[in-house]
Amino acid sequence: MWDYIKLQGVKNIGHPWMLMGDFNATMKPSDSEGGDPNWSTQKEEFSLCLHQAEIHPVPYRGIKYTWHNRQMGDNNILKKLDWILGNTTMATTWPNAQAQFLPRNISDHSPMILQLNQNQSQPKLAFKFLNLWAERDDFLPQVEKVWQEHMLGSPMYKLTAKMHKVKACLKNWHKFNRSHITSRVTKAKAAWDEAQKNMDANPRSKEAISAEKDMANRYAQLSKEEESFYKQRSRVQWLTLGDRNTAFFHISLMHRRMRNRITSLMDG
């Protein structure tokens, strides 16, 4: 693998080049905590490869140790094995590029994000009707209340205005009616993230490791309550609620949003 990276480094001289993933190697002793200090026999080869390929780590924030063996006590091991790397041309093309490593959550590796333009605004999502709304007893009264409001203007204007008001009403009503569970899940996720960061900063603390495990269990339990919502939003109709595929539904949503987003353009 190292020879291939060095070859690609030569081929991409003068062109923006980036690579990211699990390299199963650390760069320096501080990239490991716990376990055999000589575990990474490829440490020197990895650093030499990056030097010869003229690539370097993209500045990052977030989790330092991107891999955890999910063990406790003396068997607890954390390492930085995942990297986002780029050459000099990439750094000059996107001077504000920044990598982010998120809490590991259910995986033993941290998800990674590369932001080329930190000031890029997110597109506004279109309004979408959720089928679960119609199943609630207070849905029709909400719509009827808005639709029966008196308005002046032509029939087409009144129809358009009422539709806009119904949309705004449903968005606020939806936010209010699911705020309780969403708030609980969000708070549980934030608590889990903080517990992982605390364990990342105190890898030898039994209390930190135990707290991370407790927060993980709490978040997993609360997340089950959102399955039906993600199922309806994901457009996956062939899975039943009992399948407990919340993670799959979430990934499906992310893929749909990625397809609707322009991330780069090639200069012809």
Account of the protein in words:
There is one protein chain. With 268 residues, this protein is mainly alpha-helical. It is built from ten helices and nine strands. The strands form three sheets. It has a three-stranded antiparallel beta sheet. The chain is flat, with a radius of gyration of 24 Å.
Report the mean per-residue pLDDT as an integer: 79
User: In terms of quaternary structure, what is this?
Assistant: single chain
Number of domains: 3
The helix/strand order is HEEHEEEEEHEEHHHHHHH
Helix/strand class: mainly alpha
Using the coordinates shown, work out and report the CATH topology of the largest domain.
Deoxyribonuclease I, Chain A
Q: So what's the CATH class of the largest domain?
A: Alpha Beta
Give the N-to-C terminal Cα separation: 31 Å
Quickly count the helices: 10
Shape: flat
Organism: Salix udensis
Protein name: Endonuclease/exonuclease/phosphatase domain-containing protein
InterPro entries: Endo/exonu/phosph_ase_sf
